[in-house]
Amino acid sequence: MTFSHDIAIIGAGPVGGALACALAAQGKTVLLVDRAALPPMEHPDFDGRAYAIAAGCKRLLDMAGLWEALPFAPCPIEKIDVTDGKVGRPASPLQLHFNAGDVGEGAFGWIIEARSLRIAINQRLRATPGVTLRAPAAAQVSRDAHGVRVTVGEEVFTAGLVVAADGRGSQLRGQAGIAVTRLNYGQSAVVCAIAHEKPHEGVALEHFLPGGPFAQLPMTGTPAHPHLSAIVFTDRHETVKRLAAMDDSRFLPEVRKRLGEHLGEVRLVGRRWTYPLSAMYAARYYDTRLALIGDAAHGVHPIAGQGLNLGLLDAVALVELLAGAADCGTPELLAAYQAARRPANMLMLVATDALDRLFSTNNPLLRLARDAGLAAVERMPRLKRRFMLTAMGR
Ligand SMILES: Cc1cc2nc3c(=O)[nH]c(=O)nc-3n(C[C@H](O)[C@H](O)[C@H](O)COP(=O)(O)OP(=O)(O)OC[C@H]3O[C@@H](n4cnc5c(N)ncnc54)[C@H](O)[C@@H]3O)c2cc1C
Known about the structure:
This protein is α+β, with helices and mostly antiparallel strands. The protein folds into 2 domains: 187 residues, 3-Layer(bba) Sandwich (FAD/NAD(P)-binding domain); 175 residues, 2-Layer Sandwich (D-Amino Acid Oxidase, Chain A, domain 2). Helix content is 33%, strand content 31%. The chain contains 10 helices and 19 strands. Strands 1, 2, 8, 9, 10, 11, 17 and 18 form an 8-stranded mixed sheet that branches. It has an 8-stranded mixed sheet with strand order 6-5-13-14-15-12-16-19. The longest helix is centred in the C-terminal third of the chain and has 29 residues. The radius of gyration is 21 Å and the shape is globular. The site of flavin-adenine dinucleotide has 31 residues, from helix 1, strand 3, strand 12 and helix 7.
């Protein structure tokens, strides 16, 4: 059977968008549909949101030609400090320090502005001849063993495979009857950016607090703000609701209480965002001529900044499996995709869930045990090395 496109992708978020660019770079024809318009996703101003991209996941962005197209330079994460404490008190002296140089690498990964990735994806999508983009548009998808039919308004397209990259609430996943399991954390995340007086020296901080982890992630400065960092912290819903209602002058001291003094004077740049947190996983990653990818397949706690990274690794697996495939939607190929990605993603879900449960507590025994654990890992070079490679997505 001949199809109008090799692959249809529903959802042009960072995962679906990057996958489309990578497949097109490989010579595949791709139909990409998003219900939202793409240009408004390009916030012209710095908006305070950023992603931590692990070193192992940069590969997909390279394959897709996106890394070189990023309009704002990514900031390398050269060191990671892990500390434990209480809001407003100095961190426990039992700490963990990771240095990318210890495993012969220049960086664990990079912090890239969300708008930078969005702008690069939008530009590449428009400049790549193998991609047919329809956005904003509603897609009706029907599938059987022989192929996929996608109706967009008056247009009808066909493909050998449809990829659901339509995020956590994936309609395609629901239509396929694939069950999801959700874990609720009772936590929300606050995301913002800060300008600070002293340079961050490429150091990321993960400070575990009873309400949830607080992360400071180094960003590339701008002429107006030479020293910049992204802040992502989680806390109980009620606390985050209270923080969200505060004006900047009352919110900033809350950031300082969690961050400490090491960056000197700090002030907010851009706006603040809040997200309720949950984890979820799909029972299967495929159905007849359908593959789930990114947040449509899994969602993890942002404690380790791995959500998008897992989606990019899903995309790498699909691109590699589809490379030599004459028919992109065979059951064998889809089973191989699930085998390549589901166990690894489940492991990350379990690990981030366990980390959150272990650290987001005030139980004195658990606090003692985890501080001793941090100190013990600090003295175990082989285990430390394994942790570092995992953080790099290797
Ligand atoms: C607070 C917070 C901080 C985070 N920090 C990090 C981090 O530092 N590093 C990291 O790796 N990850 C991070 N993540 C996770 C990351 O944001 C997500 O994993 C990532 O956005 C998933 O991308 P996606 O393309 O799979 O889905 P989405 O970004 O949800 O995109 C889905 C797309 O599908 C479209 N769509 C939806 N339904 C339809 C439909 N029916 N038809 C057509 N189109 C549709 C939507 O318009 C959207 O464009 C964080 C998450 C949170 C909440």
